[in-house]
Design brief:
Layout (H helix, E strand, L loop, with lengths): L11 E4 H4 E5 L9 E2 L3 E4 L4 E2 L2 E2 L7 E2 L1 H6 L10 E3 L8 E3 L8 E2 L3 E5 L6 H8 L2 H10 L10 H4 L3 E4 L2 H21 L1
């Protein structure tokens, strides 16, 4: 069991873009570059709270096409956020997804000396963040979370040690809930 002693008074308010790099996943017609194997494509519908859930046959991109767009490749620890659909929902890139390219996703690469990506993903999946995302969303029919509004985020961050404990606690709770379902 993780003991959590949190001193909210020491949490610092920081603008997200001061402690992380944000960028949009690839936004172009890609269907002619779909393959059964190659570079994994992460769609907004693949992003669930704290995890990626792909169909039985995930979409992959032609390696040559992916290499031309290598600046969009995701690294371990990047936080991927839904741009269209269930906006704000986020998960962290792990080894299995490393090198993937997001299709119109919002991607955040944190300065890990300041901000734990699992803590950030946990924050993005809170009601507080999702309410903000919905309040600034655009679109007719499907909600869109624009990066200009995403980049305005100011978040409260505790020490790295507290971030790690909070993330671990939330992950453990989510695992227990999943097992009971």
């Amino acid at each position: 069991m993780i003991l959590l002693s949190i001193n909210f008074n020491t949490w610092e308010q920081r603008k997200l873009t001061d402690i992380a790099k944000t960028f949009i996943g690839l936004v172009t017609t890609m269907t002619e570059n779909y393959r059964d194997s190659g570079t994994l494509l992460i769609r907004n519908s693949d992003i669930k709270e704290g995890q990626f859930i792909f169909s039985e046959k995930p979409i992959h991109l032609d390696e040559e096409f992916a290499e031309k767009n290598k600046t969009r490749r995701l690294h371990i620890g990047d936080v991927v956020t839904v741009h269209t659909g269930d906006i704000g929902t986020s998960a962290v890139i792990k080894e299995k997804e490393a090198g993937a390219i997001g299709f119109a996703t919002i991607n955040t690469r944190t300065d890990k000396r300041i901000l734990n990506p699992y803590f950030l993903s946990t924050y993005f999946n809170t009601d507080k963040h999702k309410c903000y995302a919905n309040s600034v969303s655009t679109g007719d029919g499907r909600s869109n979370y624009n990066i200009k509004d995403f980049n305005k985020l100011v978040i409260s961050i505790p020490t790295l040690d507290e971030q790690e404990k909070i993330s671990a606690l939330i992950n453990n709770i989510n695992t227990i809930i999943t097992l009971h379902q």
